[in-house]
# Entry
Amino acid sequence: MNYELFIAKRIAFLKEKGNVISKPIIRIALIGMALGFAVMTITIAIVTGFKKEIRDKVIGFGSHIQISNYDENNSYETKPIIRNQAFIKFLKNDPEIKHIQVFATKAGIIKTEHDIEGVVAKGVGSDFDWTYFSSYLIEGSVFSISDSSLSDAILISENLSKKLNLHPGNTLIMNFIQQPPRARKFKIAGIYKTGLEEFDNLYIFCDIGHIQKLNDWSKNDVGGFEVTLKNFDNLNKEADKIYNLTGSDLNSRTIIEIFPQIFDWLGLQNINAIIIITLMIIVSGMNMISALLIIILERITLIGVLKALGSKNSSVRKLFIYLAGYLIGKGMLWGNIIGIGFILLQKKFGLFHLDQQSYYISYVPVNFSLTHILLLNAGTLLICTLMMVLPTMIITRISPLNSIRYS
# Structure
């Protein structure tokens, strides 16, 4: 029989009226543990949620992997590649790849009666997936593209619409600086707003046929391919596959390589989460150490009796570690209830908001991941329980004779 666990349960669940000193201290320690763990849970949910939201927005503009020709000047005027590539068939049969679409970009200037604005026209084809932009559409609608006819419809951002005073149904003239200079007349089909100012201020979306005509390309010439994956975690693995398929003739880049500054910034969020979690574990552990020391001091007589009956120091210490584990578990239980409750409420109702200009998103994003919560529970319980080993060392210094004599 594990008598240490039996006695620990008796102490934990026994309702005693005399412990006027330990009760408030233990209650404070449990509250501290619960709040600390709730903060850790919420921190993980917010950091991972924020990273996912921003990452998905960036991927919406550029997909996971882009395949294009090598371009030494790093401009928006890319060299054309043939649409009918041999590797496309292999990519479409890859179960990890969700979608493949063509694109081409060209810089230009939008001029109205009173304003002028530099933008990048991103030409897309009939295979373009509008799901992302449909979710961020605030006026009008997306437009359909046909391989047999040229569409004059475009999609612009809310920022551009406000700067240029344009609305769905309005027409605009876009000038392209080239030799000879050319201009195109477009009709606004819809207005989108993603919150990513750098992208919203830059991109408009049009039929790729316009880019092909402006660059004197054939219908079989495109600026490149965008590859969307089913799972972001497979990014590097799929990038290696694509590189092996395309060889050295084409340039395949991941979204992280295209926008390293954004993903480096997102990577810094991990450091913030680690610092917060570390501090919360230390504070929670110190609270539980204080509570355990008080319990040990109140149970000196019990410790003396157990030693007098032949219990070893290790057995008595194990008893109090069991007791500490129970208290830690109880605090974590309430921490889970508070933390998960906040996550679910925020996810459903969006109670807390952010400045979109500063954070690229208008609300506090949360990501409810059962795996993250289970790992956080297991790690916190293990670390805090190991921290309890230190205060139980005082038990080795307690003399059975003295503890019983002066009890």
Remarks:
- DSSP finds 15 helices and twelve strands in the chain.
